[in-house]
């Protein structure tokens, strides 16, 4: 629960009422709104800034859908001083939390002035931070990723830091740390005509058959790899100079798969080999990379429930090391052959 002072607690419903009043005051002219469909659910996204709504819309363009009366959830994003939403007894630097298991209410704040919250009574998710320009918003990474991660955990979904591609309706999850060739491999698969779900963040089902669903319609690529994919036709949205001039590209002009069953995890490694190859491997190393990169990217380093959920979800999924060859497009063709032939052979045994 939210601590107001020693021995006193602020009921979640009162906190959310006060926060929504202030949001309404900040947006007296109305919200800028659009809708997306992700993993079969429709989410309404509300912004106090038309500029940042447009930037988010570019990143989620493939999933955009028509308005509905009763969306699964509503996301609110706005810029403000987070301290204005806390009890008067709290001033200066803070890191305040609320995780009410009984009601499902959630609040997390960061010392640098960000706030993430969920009101289960209205199915509303909130993210507030200090003002960002459009370019700063792009450079901060994938739009609203913290909101999507929290929402996914409440909807029997998991938002993973990984890629997903497939062939003939069968898919694989590609996971690795940054710089291991994951994005280049998945984007090459897109260009080679394989089924494509994502190159960086992917939604997967939390129970039942393991399936991957798209969310972001943008792709990320290191500039030295951009020249090795001459057929790539995706407008540059932003260049992140703080991360080695990493490119943020709009891939919404390409065809995305609406969902793929995941049959295996592929763990790519950059090598000096001339041709790609696949070998079965013990799942430990790949799972450590997948879990570590996911919880780090989502800011969930202390979320042991999420760690256990990811580990348990992939407990019986085969894992393969992929030794990458020097030609990205040949690597993509190798992924297609692996899914059609080797993986299909394993499934039939």
From TrEMBL:
Q: Which SUPFAM superfamilies match?
A: PEP carboxykinase-like (SSF53795)
Protein name listed in UniProt: Serine kinase
- Look up and give the organism this protein is from: Papillibacter cinnamivorans DSM 12816
């Amino acid at each position: 629960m939210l601590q107001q002072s020693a021995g006193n607690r602020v009921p979640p419903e009162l906190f959310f009422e006060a926060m929504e009043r202030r949001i309404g005051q900040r947006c007296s002219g109305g919200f800028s709104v659009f809708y997306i469909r992700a993993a079969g659910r429709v989410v309404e996204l509300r912004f106090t800034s038309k500029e940042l709504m447009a930037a988010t819309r570019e990143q989620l363009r493939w999933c955009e859908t028509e308005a509905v009366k009763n969306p699964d959830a509503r996301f609110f994003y706005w810029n403000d001083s987070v301290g204005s939403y806390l009890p008067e007894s709290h001033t200066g630097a803070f890191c305040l939390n609320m995780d009410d298991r009984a009601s499902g209410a959630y609040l997390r704040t960061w010392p640098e002035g960000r706030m993430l919250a969920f009101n289960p009574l209205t199915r509303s998710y909130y993210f507030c931070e200090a003002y960002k320009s459009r370019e700063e918003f792009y450079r901060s990474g994938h739009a609203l990723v913290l909101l999507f991660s929290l929402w996914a955990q409440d909807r029997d979904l998991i938002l993973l830091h990984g890629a997903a591609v497939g062939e003939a309706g069968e898919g694989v999850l590609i996971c690795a740390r940054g710089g291991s060739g994951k994005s280049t491999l998945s984007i090459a698969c897109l260009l080679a005509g394989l089924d494509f779900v994502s190159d960086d963040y992917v939604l997967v089902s939390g129970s039942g058959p393991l399936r991957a669903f798209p969310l972001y319609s943008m792709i990320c690529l290191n500039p030295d790899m951009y020249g090795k994919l001459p057929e790539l036709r995706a407008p540059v949205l932003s260049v992140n100079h703080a991360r080695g001039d990493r490119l943020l590209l709009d891939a919404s002009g390409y065809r995305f798969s609406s969902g793929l069953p995941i049959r295996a995890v592929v763990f790519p490694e950059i090598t000096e080999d001339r041709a790609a190859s696949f070998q079965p491997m013990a799942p430990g190393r790949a799972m450590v990379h997948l879990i570590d990169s996911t919880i780090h990217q989502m800011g969930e380093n202390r979320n042991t429930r999420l760690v256990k959920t990811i580990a348990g979800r992939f407990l019986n999924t085969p894992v393969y090391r992929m030794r990458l060859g020097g030609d990205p497009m040949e690597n993509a063709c190798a992924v297609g052959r692996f899914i059609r032939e080797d993986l299909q052979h394993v499934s039939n045994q």
